[in-house]
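Justification of resources, computational component.

The compute hours requested in this renewal are based largely on the per-chain cost of generating structure records like the one below. Each record pairs the submitted sequence with a full structure-token output. That output is archived, and it is also reused by downstream analysis tasks.
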Amino acid sequence: MTADNTLSKFLEYSDRLAANAEADPNVIGLIFLGSAADHSRVDEWSDHDFFLMVKAGFGEQYRGDLSWIPDIEQAVLHPRETDHGLKVVFADGRVLEFAVFEDAELELASVNSWAAVVDKTDLTPRLEAIETRSRASAAKPFDRAKEFELFLALILIGTGRHRRGETLIAGQFIRSYALRNLLGLIRDAHAPVPGTEAKQDNLDRYRRFELQYPSLGRRIENALQKDLDAAALDLVEIAEGLRPLSDREAAQVAAVRGRLGWV
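The structure output for this chain reads:
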């Protein structure tokens, strides 16, 4: 399928969602998120992410009865993920990720890229305030010392569990928990590739990292393909090379390296 056809089909389904929301008297809004709001990002793997806003008392009805979703008879999966959120997977592989909020619940959410395509109750000013709050929260000063120390502690714990034989939990510590801290350290130490600044997701430091930091992204991906012990060491070496270490940081690294025999 060509890019033009992909976008056309994506927008056609968006229009059907919006038409259903507009016609439903119990629905007060439909808010598209991510690529559903920013069509420049749509590709063959794009999901429809959105919030469905409903009147007070109707939340559970719309989370349980999904007949308001176009093509729902073609769904093969529709798990409830959180109190408000669900996923729907259709037989052809299309995916919806959404939350159903009652009017008073909207402020539970965080947003960055959004578009209120149906707004029957003046949701737009509230969304603007939520976006401002979300951006302010994401803009809090980065605590390098905390993130660096957490990274090293998670590497030590994860590698220890790997050597004990607890491979699954070790992988979670090294390839997920510690990696999250490392991504934050990288973003703090280096600017992204020029021209990619707007691609950053201020709600998730993993998103589009490879686009913004292609060289480091490849190094991390190569590291993660290795045995857990070697992967953990590679991640430490990446962290060491981001900027000159203070005496305190060098001592912290030395302690972890010494305990794990990486000397």
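The radius of gyration is 22 Å. Residues 66 and 119 are 20 Å apart (CA to CA).
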